[in-house]
Specification:
5-stranded parallel beta sheet, Arc Repressor Mutant, subunit A, 5 strands, 2 domains, Rossmann fold, alpha/beta
Length: about 260
């Protein structure tokens, strides 16, 4: 998750009267002014204290204001590289973009068929049904996980869905050896370090099901490495969501309906 994603997630997750929602919103609305900022500049822009800004930085998962400032300045000055799902090489016309999305859909289908079989699905379902707690630590929101959670709740499971790293670390304290954690990692130079999250899960003896590329720095923590392939972001995320949709619907068919 990059700094813009983190700020957006924090903004969306806070109540309308939250000072952190207001702070995140002001920063996002003024990204063009974040290319060269100090904590004093952000305090003046948002009419906030430096203490409040530091607490915001901590909520986002940064260990220091310097780390946050570097990420924010990079995002503001190089925004052309951020939030691109299709890549710089994609056409910039509606027709070109539609054609590229179509190609990615076809690639997603290949990934889905290659990395999820009926036999693997049945094996995963058995493990999920045996577990008591099933958490999702995914750095973006998807309705398929929310649907999956509803099926898990109906079957008496404890479930949790976290996007921000500090929340992952906090909720990991409730895990135990009867827990399974789905983790998706987006690993680029500007993303936040997640080693502490993995270490906390392992301390609790929970099982980790990792969705990441073959070269993930977190592979050593995985008990299962699912969808372990390098692919275009759009293709990979669509295949990932279809993977979760399949598990959710199969879980419902097997243990609820």
């Amino acid at each position: 998750m990059n700094v813009i994603q983190a700020l957006t997630e924090l903004y969306d997750s806070q109540s309308t009267d939250s000072i952190y929602r207001e702070l995140a919103g002001k920063i996002l609305q003024n990204l063009s002014e974040m290319k060269r900022v100090t904590i004093y500049d952000i305090a003046d822009l948002t009419a906030s204290s430096r203490t409040t800004i530091w607490r915001l930085v901590q909520k986002l998962g940064y260990g220091s204001f310097s780390d946050f400032r570097y990420a924010l300045q990079s995002a503001a000055s190089q925004y052309v590289y951020y939030n691109r799902m299709l890549g710089l090489q994609s056409a910039n016309t509606p027709k070109g973009i539609m054609d590229e999305v179509g190609r990615q859909l076809l690639h997603s289908k290949k990934l889905y068929n290659q990395y999820l079989s009926a036999d693997l699905c049945e094996a995963l379902l058995k493990e999920l049904h045996t577990a008591k707690k099933i958490y999702f630590y995914i750095p973006f929101r998807t309705s398929f996980i929310s649907s999956f959670q509803q099926n898990l709740w109906k079957d008496g499971k404890e479930t949790c869905y976290e996007v921000l790293i500090p929340n992952m670390i906090e909720t990991s304290a409730h895990l135990d050896e009867h827990s399974i954690v789905f983790i998706n990692t987006i690993e680029f130079t500007e993303t936040l370090e997640m080693t502490e999250v993995f270490e906390k899960i392992k301390e609790k003896k929970a099982t980790i099901w990792l969705f990441a590329s073959k070269e993930s720095q977190y592979s050593r923590f995985a008990d299962r490495h699912l969808l372990a392939v390098d692919a275009n972001a759009t293709s990979w995320i669509i295949a990932f969501e279809c993977y979760l949709l399949t598990l959710s619907e199969c879980y419902r068919a097997s243990f609820i309906d």
